[in-house]
């Protein structure tokens, strides 16, 4: 390492990932997964505002809870030092033992500084009706409402940069952008109405999301993949997941009534019913944001 030239040293993991993805896009090969796909913007539907109204109560609850947790984890703490202007009277007993760390000094904790990309499977199987708990809704309705509620809740939290992408259709049209990083979620609410169709081009969607995450400024990158089935192509899907994990993108798979995610993602959650998706996403982000703010 001491004798290595500048161009031989390992650079920033996220910059390396971006360069690797750009090389893949320029090179020939199987376009089903080796090329970084361009997402088509999901069309805006006029029912988007009604969807926002339907999740308003849930969004408000999630936002207040997440915001409160982040604020609590960011509260200024104190550390004892050997010099300073403020005595910590509770630590004066240390002087007897020769420990002069009796001055109190504030310690600022960092904000989350996290980019979150939520990938939602909108393949044909998402049309299935879920349990009575979800009042006869389909999987796609539950997934759509959960993704919107979480994105709206995350957006106002300082240091959090959410995005949502759907994957469905086929290899020629696999990825649909719902909310890009930095976009206003409310303004894109109509795009959440895109319906389920086709199969499960998960590898293409992860390539796209990884490239989008590599362009964000946030230090921490999190990708959450929600699916109810197996990807069209397992081997390339595993390859891009491994690349993301080596490049310090935190990958989490949520399987809706499928354990296929357990063989793809080191961090995975399997839920028995789509009705559990909203609670699962909330708990996942609750742990993630408070851990990153600590």
Automatic annotation (TrEMBL):
InterPro entries: NorD/CobT, VWF_A, vWFA_dom_sf. Coiled coil: none annotated. Pfam families: VWA. Residues 113-290 form the VWFA domain. This is VWA domain-containing protein. It comes from Marinobacterium aestuariivivens.
């Amino acid at each position: 390492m001491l004798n290595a030239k500048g161009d031989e040293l390992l650079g920033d993991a996220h910059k390396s990932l971006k360069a690797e993805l750009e090389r893949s896009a320029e090179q020939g090969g199987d376009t089903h997964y080796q090329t970084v796909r361009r997402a088509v913007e999901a069309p805006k539907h006029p029912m988007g505002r009604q969807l926002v109204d339907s999740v308003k109560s849930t969004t408000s609850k999630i936002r207040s809870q997440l915001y409160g947790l982040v604020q609590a984890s960011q509260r200024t703490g104190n550390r004892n030092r050997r010099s300073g202007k403020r005595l910590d009277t509770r630590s004066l007993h240390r002087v007897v033992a020769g420990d002069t760390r009796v001055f109190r000094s504030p310690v600022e904790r960092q904000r989350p500084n996290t980019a979150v990309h939520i990938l939602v499977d909108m393949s044909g199987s998402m049309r299935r009706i879920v349990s009575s708990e979800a009042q006869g809704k389909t999987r796609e309705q539950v997934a759509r409402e959960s993704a919107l509620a979480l994105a709206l809740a995350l957006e106002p939290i300082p240091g959090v940069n959410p995005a949502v992408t759907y994957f469905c259709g086929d290899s020629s049209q696999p990825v649909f952008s719902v909310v890009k990083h930095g976009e206003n979620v409310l303004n894109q609410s109509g795009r959440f109405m895109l319906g389920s169709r086709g199969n499960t081009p998960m590898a293409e969607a992860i390539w796209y999301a990884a490239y989008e995450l590599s362009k964000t400024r946030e230090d921490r990158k999190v990708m959450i993949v929600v699916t109810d089935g197996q990807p069209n192509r397992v081997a390339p899907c595993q390859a891009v997941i491994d690349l993301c994990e080596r490049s310090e993108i935190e990958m989490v798979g949520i399987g809706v009534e499928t354990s296929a995610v357990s063989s793809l993602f080191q961090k995975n959650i399997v839920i028995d019913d789509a009705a559990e998706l909203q609670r699962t996403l909330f708990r996942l982000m609750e742990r993630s944001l408070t851990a990153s703010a600590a």
